[in-house]
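Subject: Predicted fold for Addiction module toxin RelE, 118 residues

User T.R. writes:
Posting the sequence so we have a shared reference for the thread.
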Amino acid sequence: MLLCIIARQLKIGKIGGTYTLMYEIEYTPQAIEDLQFFRKNDQKQILDNIEIQLQYEPTVETRNRKQMRPNDLAAWELRIGKFRILYNVDEVVLIVEVQRIGEKQGNAFLFRGQQEDV
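User M.O. replies:
I've generated the structure tokens; pasting them so everyone works from the same file.
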């Protein structure tokens, strides 16, 4: 019981038998506008996957999550099928900030249907 109370206060979750810190997910106004561009079922898929994949250990590379080359937009990329979520992580205050949500076609990123360089 005490462990459960401490876990809630410290935003700790249990993954595979170990306890890990839970990150808060925030969205920039641009990311919210990007999300609204997609169909409702795509929006749900994107939001569900963001919560699952970025709430714990968002800076650990996986086959769907990687650190990007240096750029002005975001340090990390999350792949959800054809969708790409670009985000930054503040490990001091445990916040994931979603910068942009788009699609990837070849090497190009499309945000709200328009190609942009990243």
